[in-house]
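User: Continuing from earlier, I have the next pair ready.

Assistant: Great, send them over.

User: Here they are, in order.

Assistant: Folding the first of the pair now:
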Amino acid sequence: MPESKAFIDTNILLYLLSADTDKANQAEMVLQAGDMISVQVLNEFTNVARRKLKMSWDETNEVLGLIRSICRTESLTVETHDKGRIVAERYQLSVYDAMIVASALLGNCTILYSEDMQHNLLIDDQLRISNPFINS
């Protein structure tokens, strides 16, 4: 059986900065085991870090650098968009969640760590959504 590859959604990475130490620790473990993110994840993380968390550019860039040093980044392409539209319709996901799923599928991932999507949902017989905070 091929080795599992994991994709990490933005919401998991944001817990790295959380005052909730249990969730921050769990997010760190997921990051250490994770393989992939997408440009969309980087953009969403940057937006929340700057606007909601009021982080400076230096602080934001430091965290982004750490994430990028650990995870490969899947580019956003027209193929991502096309696959995402199909996934959104088939699984009734929001367009933005579907684009995350599409990036994970195109990256040949088998696990997508996300707190916001349906835990244990199997997409296209390839990708299982997993909420790492369940049972934590």
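And the other member of the pair:
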Amino acid sequence: MTLANILISVLLLLGALIMVLASVGLLRFGDVYLRMHAGTKASTLGIGFIMIGTALYFSDALLTIKLIALGVIYFFTAPTGAQVLARAAHIARTPTVKETWIDELDEAGESKSG
């Protein structure tokens, strides 16, 4: 095994592990806001590692350009979509976990703790 193959394997495994942890976060977190955090932050990082590993494995210029374009699209759309969903959940007054003690989007400017 060459050093390049080891690097590619590490990148792909790290990306897959981060994606599995994001899936566990989706199952374990208590409210919609925390689940969106797990779904966007961890999956964006995981997909980034997988795309880098794929580009290194195939070492084709056209495929690398396509992966970069897909990565840029994903890195902009996933957090933006999560922001829109979080705003809609906030407007719909979706309940939060009890550990959430401040609401910075509250129009009255009052926190939940008083």
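Worth noting for the second one:
The chain has one domain: 3-91. The mean pLDDT is 88.
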